[in-house]
Amino acid sequence: MKHLLHTLEGRLAALPVPMAVQLPAGQQLGAPEPAVTLRFRDRMALVALATGEIGNVGAAIVEGRVALEGGMRDLMAAAAGLLTRDPARDQHHGWWQRVLARARSMAVHTLAHDARHVQFHYDLSDDFYALWLDPRRVYSCAYYRSPDLTLAQAQEAKLDHICRKLQLQPGDRFLDIGAGWGGLLLWAAEHYGVDATGITLSRNQHAHVQRRIEERGLQGRVRMQLVDYRELQVAQPFDKIASVGMFEHVGRAQMQRYFETVAGLLRPGGLVLNHGITAGGADNAQLGAGMGDFIEQYIFPGGELLHVSTVLHDMARAGLEMVDTENLRPHYARTLWAWSDGLEAQLPAAREVLAAQGGAQQGDKVLRAYRLYLAGSALGFERGWMALHQMLAIKPDGDVATGAMPGAQSGYPFIRDYIYRS
């Protein structure tokens, strides 16, 4: 332990922000006037800090074994300095570990498990999410088309960016897989005149969108279904499909089946846009340094991230041709910091909402988890441990005369100008 404490003292001195650590016995290490202080109540969490397992330290904070004093931005600057390795590239699995990981993915991502996982996160409390999301409650990466945009403006820019990429037209049959609180679904219907269908596994989100459809008089043209993508039945295929912030819940073992299902729901020549978080490392199944385990336990049970190359491989095997891929990683870092700052500004209200949902003790635990999750994720996207890709694909119709360009086999123009024209 003496060696660990000596190592920890040296690392605290090298941090970009002043930080102090109080040991279980009361001794204090680090800066005399800290911006961040961690007060440890047990030794195992102290060992995790000294060895760079910052996800395990986060779990100890959530469970009340470590008390935190200080702001999230300062804490994350310190956390980055305390890492001993790149968490996106510290896992190298042999063939047997890969077989076990695939078997686990198959077992975890059943219809029943996926529904429970989604409801665990998204049905936490609509009032809680409303405190720090934008007014449309768009819970995915915003698009900062210009640097002066507010969060709400950047979310609207993202919704429009997706609609432009999909070339939505009045009358298009449009499907939104994992439609959340209906931001994209309603935007597409109201601004592009599509016939829109959204699906979700969240009961809260389903009820919220149903109310918004009625309030806006969109019955008959917009519908929301409480159904798994694998069980969606339609009379005719869709012209355009979007999946935003959903495929992270699908699982590595189910990814090809996911894209095959999407392809089956899309008419020949139709377009699909898949927007989601991808892994920063080519081989890691989750973030290292204990961060992946933290997310699994407290935030997104069953979530799995794949490198964009793996996603595109599974997309191609399902018969979809990728025509455009865009990395919005820094946009998500800024989005998450906006969410984190928004939650930090609403801590008393958040504590009250969560206490009403599950009691004061459980509410405080959930709040600590989300404070760390939002700020930690912002850090992860800044550092490239994770990325955010929009992947646009077509389902070729087999007719080389289809489209404005010979051989397009779809309505996609194979130039990007149309996305950015006003």
Automatic annotation (TrEMBL):
One GO MF term: methyltransferase activity
Class of the enzyme per the UniProt entry, highest EC level: transferase
Enzyme Commission designation: 2.1.1.-
GO biological process entries: methylation
Pfam families from the UniProt entry: CMAS
Gene3D superfamilies the UniProt entry points to: Vaccinia Virus protein VP39
Matches recorded under CDD domains: AdoMet_MTases
Origin: domain of life: Bacteria
Protein keywords: Lipid metabolism, Methyltransferase, S-adenosyl-L-methionine, Transferase
Family in the record: Belongs to the CFA/CMAS family.
Protein name: Class I SAM-dependent methyltransferase
